[in-house]
Write a structure and sequence with these properties.
The protein is mainly α. Helix content is about 75%, strand content about 5%.
Length: about 350
C-alpha cells in the first residue's frame, strides 16, 4: 500500500495522500459555506494524519490563502462582502497574527507547542459551540414570545445581542458600513480583528473560526455578510501567514498544493450554497461541526493518556475528522442542489 503514502520533503514525514485530498475538497466546501478557511478542521486533521503541529499550522495557512481568494470572489458577486469593513480589520489582523506566530515559535522551542495548542483548541471550540447554540435557543425563544403576542421577530435579529453593547463605544472615527448595515467606531473592528488575528496566529487558522462569530455577535453583521467579509479577511491573513511561516521553515508546500487542487473546486460549491441556506441554518451546521472537531482532538489526546488503546483512539480520531468533513460537505452539496432545483422550478412557474 506504499502507493497511498508520500514523503513530505521539508517536514520529513510520510503522509497518507488520499487523506489530504479528502480534507482539501471537503474543507473547500465547508470553508466557502461557513466563511472561513476551514483550518479549525485542517490543522488538527493534518496533525492527526502525521504532521508535527508547527508544520500542520504553516501548511494549512498556505492552502487556505489560495482557496479563500476563490471564495471571496464568488461571495463578492452575491454582494456578501463588506470590503470597507474588511480593509479596516486588516490593521488588527496582521498585527495580531504576527504576535501569535511568534508565540508558536517560542512554544516550539520549549517543546510545548503540541500540548498547548491542542488545549487551546478544545477550550476555544467549547466556547464557540456554547455561543452558537445559546444564540439559537434565545432566538427561538424570542420568536415564540413574538408569536404569542401576535407579532414577529425582525429577520436580522439575533439571540445574543452583544453587538448592541459594543456599538455604545463612540470613540472617533465613527464609520458606516453599507453591506453590513452597521454604524460604529472604527476601533471596534480593529480591536476584534487584533484579538482574532492573535488567536489565528497561535492556532494556525485564518481567523475564520473565531472571526465569523465575532462579526455576528460583537460587530453585528448579518450572517451572510459575516461569511463573505470573513473570507476576505481569511484571504489577507492567509497570504501574510503563508509568508511568515514559510520564512520560518514551517510550510510543507507539496501538501498545500495537493489540498488546494481539491479545495478550489469545493470552495465554489460551498459559496453557492450560501445563496440557498441562510442565517440560522448556517449557524446550527457550524455549531455541530465545531463539536465534532473538538471530539476528534480529544480522542487524539486520549491516545497518549491510554497507550494500550492508542492505535484504536488514533484511528477513531482520523475516521471522525475525515468523516465529519465528508458528511458536512455532502449535506451542504445536497442542500445546494435542492435549492437550485427549487429556484429553477419557481422561474419556470413564473413564466
Amino acid at each position: 500500500m506504499d502507493f497511498f503514502y508520500v514523503l513530505m520533503p521539508i517536514s520529513g514525514v510520510t503522509i497518507f495522500w488520499p487523506g489530504l485530498i479528502i480534507l482539501g475538497v471537503g474543507v473547500g466546501i465547508i470553508g466557502g459555506f461557513f466563511g472561513m478557511g476551514g483550518a479549525w478542521m485542517v490543522t488538527p486533521g493534518l496533525n492527526i494524519l502525521g504532521f508535527p503541529m508547527a508544520f500542520a499550522i504553516g501548511t494549512d495557512i498556505a492552502h487556505m490563502a489560495g482557496k479563500s481568494l476563490i471564495s471571496t470572489m464568488r461571495h463578492g458577486k452575491f454582494g456578501n462582502v463588506d470590503y470597507k469593513l474588511g480593509v479596516i480589520m486588516i490593521v488588527g489582523t496582521v498585527g495580531g497574527f504576527e504576535l501569535g506566530a511568534q508565540m508558536v515559535m517560542w512554544l516550539e522551542r520549549i517543546g510545548k507547542v503540541e500540548l498547548y495548542v491542542r488545549y487551546m483548541y478544545l477550550v476555544l471550540l467549547a466556547l464557540i459551540a456554547w455561543m452558537v447554540f445559546a444564540d439559537v435557543v434565545k432566538k427561538r425563544r424570542k420568536e415564540r414570545e413574538a408569536l404569542a403576542r401576535g407579532g414577529e421577530v425582525d429577520k436580522l435579529a439575533t439571540g445574543l445581542e452583544w453587538h448592541k453593547t459594543m456599538h455604545k463605544l463612540k470613540i472617533p472615527p465613527m464609520m458606516h458600513f453599507k453591506e453590513a448595515q452597521i454604524y460604529c467606531s472604527a476601533w471596534l473592528p480593529i480591536i476584534v480583528s487584533f484579538l482574532t488575528g492573535w488567536l489565528a496566529g497561535i492556532l494556525g487558522i485564518g481567523g475564520g473560526l473565531i472571526r465569523m462569530p465575532a462579526l455576528i455577535y460583537f460587530i453585528g453583521c448579518p450572517t451572510h455578510v459575516a461569511v463573505g467579509t470573513d473570507l476576505f479577511e481569511v484571504m489577507i491573513s492567509g497570504l501574510y501567514g503563508t509568508a511568515t511561516y514559510t520564512y520560518k521553515g514551517r510550510t510543507e508546500l507539496v501538501a498545500a498544493i495537493i489540498m488546494l487542487v481539491g479545495a478550489s473546486i469545493g470552495a465554489q460549491v460551498g459559496t453557492v450554497a450560501t445563496k440557498y441556506i441562510k442565517g440560522y441554518g448556517i449557524r446550527i451546521a457550524f455549531g455541530l461541526a465545531v463539536i465534532g472537531c473538538a471530539i476528534s482532538i480529544l480522542l487524539k489526546m486520549m491516545a497518549k493518556w491510554f497507550p494500550t488503546y492508542g492505535d484504536l483512539l488514533d484511528g477513531s480520531s482520523t475516521v471522525l475528522i475525515l468523516g465529519l468533513v465528508a458528511t458536512m460537505s455532502m449535506y451542504i452539496f445536497v442542500r445546494m442542489v435542492q435549492g437550485a432545483k427549487q429556484e429553477v422550478a419557481m422561474k419556470k412557474a413564473g413564466k
